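haha ok so turns out i had the wrong file open the whole time. this is the CORRECT one, sorry everyone. sequence first:
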Amino acid sequence: MLSPDDFTYALENTRVVLAPTQRLDTFGTSLFNYFLVTEEMDTVNRSRVREGHIHAERPQIVTPQNMARLLLEGFGDQGQRFADQLGQQPNRFAFLKYGFRVSKSDIRSYDVHESLEHVAGKLKDELQLKNEPLTALLTGVDDGWEVCLLKFMVDMIAASMQGNLGDFRERGML
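then structure:
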């Protein structure tokens, strides 16, 4: 288990070397391929490459009326009153709920006896030639590699949200 400092270190040292050129799909599932390159802390010029898939499920509209059911587990009367007030303003608030699935069975890893920078550079060149809009290349921390991947997923939500909201508005769903 990571210490709070290790967790923070992993967040601060996650870098997107090659970002997907396509945002999360609004009306369907997006399947992203990722390559995460990390460097072992106690071995010089030894990097680990992890490849896998992230399934991003279709974002769902969360309206004030159903927000209370989703978000208020464990809250008391005051939380319920706040949710009730939000429910009385249906046109004022709407949120998107995103779901992700990373299957451990999809993950493949291998070690390369070269520096992180060299491995990431070679992979970037290869991936740019393939020109796949749903592929990402990241660098991060070996012990906290899952934190690095989760940070990337949260950043993808942030980058996609305005476009997804616009798509819902265009179809009259918001």
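The mean pLDDT is 83.
again sry for the mixup
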